[in-house]
Design goal:
81% of the residues lie in helices and 0% in strands. By secondary structure, the chain is an all-alpha fold. Helix 3 packs across helix 4 (161-177), helix 5 runs parallel beside helix 7 (230-246) and helix 6 runs parallel beside helix 8. The radius of gyration is 50 Å and the shape is elongated.
Length: 296
């Protein structure tokens, strides 16, 4: 609060000494009053300012208390949430582990049931085979169930109990190198089809295993060096392999024809069907007397 005070003095000065003395006395009196007034005004300002500062300080203290209280509440809430999440995570991990175990046992049981249908394994011999399947699966980063499924496919194709596990291992190895996901049973069916179509089976297990490895190596080699995928070859090779083999073609020759056609047409299915049709037409013409006479 700023206010200015003006004091107007009006006096008549005459020559008498008394009049001058009185005037000086009045002036001193007024100066004292003015000093008292200024001091009073300044004291009121200071008092008001102190009250405002005290109010502001109280407000700040209250705000600090509320902030501390709010911070404490959030801290407790975060701690509670963290504890809840930790407990929940452990709980659900345990549940998922139990479910996975149940699913694995169920899948294994189903695979063993299918294996028992096509083999004479039972009791101790079945338990021994299961342990060997898990051990073989560990060598190729596959489960025992996948090994048993592959072995079952070979057993269905007529291979002996001494052969199916080792041939199943070859099939599971192919699932590791294939460009696209393929089940161990499907991989086994692919190998079986080529072994039988191109007469690569042998009474010697080692020879049969060697030919099986050669099949997956050949498919893997062309998929790595040409614009075709191993799944294109594996899926469509069997569609015409028997016809091509009957016409005197080797597996390597058919794979070469499949790769050459697929790179251009981008459709392994069309190439496979085309090779089969062309080969059958050629065979038909070769046994046709009119065609043979004309060619002669």
């Amino acid at each position: 609060m700023n206010k200015e005070y003006y004091i107007k003095l009006q006096a008549t000065i005459d020559d008498s000494q008394k009049t001058v003395s009185e005037l000086n006395s009045k002036i001193k009196t007024l100066e004292g009053k003015v000093s008292e007034l200024k001091l009073k005004i300044d004291s009121q300002k200071v008092s008001k300012a102190n009250k405002q500062l005290a109010s502001l300080n109280a407000t700040a203290q209250e705000g600090k208390k509320q902030a501390d209280k709010w911070n404490y509440s959030w801290s407790k809430a975060f701690q509670s949430f963290t504890t809840y999440m930790s407990v929940t995570t452990v709980f659900y991990q345990t549940i998922h582990t139990i479910r996975d175990m149940i699913d694995e046992v169920t899948e294994l049981d189903g695979a063993l049931v299918e294996l028992k249908k096509v083999t004479d394994l039972e009791g101790e011999s079945l338990q021994k085979f299961t342990k060997e399947a898990y051990a073989a699966g560990a060598d190729v980063a596959k489960t025992g169930t996948e090994m048993i499924e592959a072995a079952t496919s070979f057993a269905k194709a007529g291979y002996s109990e001494d052969q199916i596990l080792q041939l199943g291992k070859v099939a599971t190895m192919y699932t590791n190198i294939a460009d696209e996901a393929i089940s161990s049973a499907d991989a086994a069916d692919f190998i079986i089809a080529q072994l039988k179509a191109f007469n690569l089976e042998s009474d010697d297990l080692n020879k049969t295993l060697e030919n099986s490895y050669h099949i997956i190596d050949a498919v893997n080699e062309v998929s790595n060096n040409f614009a075709v995928s191993s799944s294109d070859i594996a899926t469509n090779l069997g569609k015409a392999s028997s016809v091509m083999a009957n016409a005197g073609n080797s597996m390597e020759q058919m794979i070469g024809l499949m790769v050459a056609g697929t790179e251009v047409t981008r459709s392994a299915t069309k190439v496979s069907n085309g090779l089969k049709t062309i080969t059958l037409r050629l065979q038909e013409n070769l046994i046709n007397p009119w065609y043979v006479q004309k060619c002669a």
